[in-house]
Every structure is written in C-alpha cells, then in structure tokens.
Amino acid sequence: TAGNESAIVNVTIENTNGTDANGEAVSSLLMLELTDASGKPMQWAPGAKANPLLDTVFQDTMKGQNLKKGEKITGEVGYEVPQGATGLVLKFKPDPLLDEKSVLEVSLEQ
C-alpha cells in the first residue's frame, strides 16, 4: 500500500514447556502480532519477501508434526508498516485463544 513498507522479522521459537506428548502447534498468524508504539496492530503481509516463511519452515522441518520438547524452528514473518515507523513491538502469544495473559513482548530496532 502507498506510504507503507514491509517489515521482515526473523523469529526463532523453541518448545520449553517440558512436555513431549503432543508437542506444540505453531502459527505465526495466530501467535505473533506486530504493533506500533501506540499499540496499533500492523497488517500481516503474506506477500512480503519473508524467506523462509516461519509457517513454511514449520511444515517443511517438522513434516506437519507439532513442535516437541526442546525443538526449535526459525523463519521470517512479514508485516506492512508505515514507512519510517518506530517503536515496533513483536508480541508472541503461545496460547492465543485461551490465555491472553501469557504474552512475550519484544521491542524491535530497525
């Protein structure tokens, strides 16, 4: 969109919860959110040149299985942000549907 640019974030996720039974499913669309300094969420940009795309890495590396105890995945996620945006924060919600309190926030510097 005019006046916007892509922000590509490289993310590594590790299952450290101590369970091996079913593992943990990973979805960048559900679990990750990028916000600006005011808390406004940025639009996910599936067309951004994220390579490798985090969800694709998950599918290729884990062959569709969940992330088991101690396993890690690394990939990129793209967002559409206003040009020159600062104060961006990436939020990771390990259980986006049931637990809104367990959120990890990471400030991003460009």
Explain this structure to me?
The protein is mainly beta and about 110 residues long. It is about 10% helix and about 35% strand. The protein is built from 2 helices and 6 strands, in the order βαββαβββ. The strands form 2 sheets. Strands 1-4-3 form a 3-stranded antiparallel β-sheet. The longest helix has 9 residues. It starts with a strand and ends with a strand.
Layout of helices and strands, plus pairs?
Blueprint: E1 4-14, H1 28-31, E2 32-35, E3 43-44, H2 54-62, E4 72-82, E5 89-92, E6 104-107
Antiparallel strand pairs: 1-4, 2-5, 3-4, 5-6
What is the averaged pLDDT score?
77
Strand content: 25-35%
Strand order of the largest sheet: 1-4-3
Instruction: Point out poorly predicted stretches.
Output: none
Structural class: mainly beta
Rg over C-alpha atoms, rounded to the nearest angstrom: 14 Å
What is the CA–CA distance across the termini? 20 Å
In percent, how helical is the residue content? 10-25%
Order of helices and strands: EHEEHEEE
Summarize this structure briefly.
With 110 residues, the chain is mainly beta. Helix content is 12%, strand content 33%.
Spell out the key features of this protein.
single chain; 110 residues; mainly beta; 3-stranded antiparallel sheet
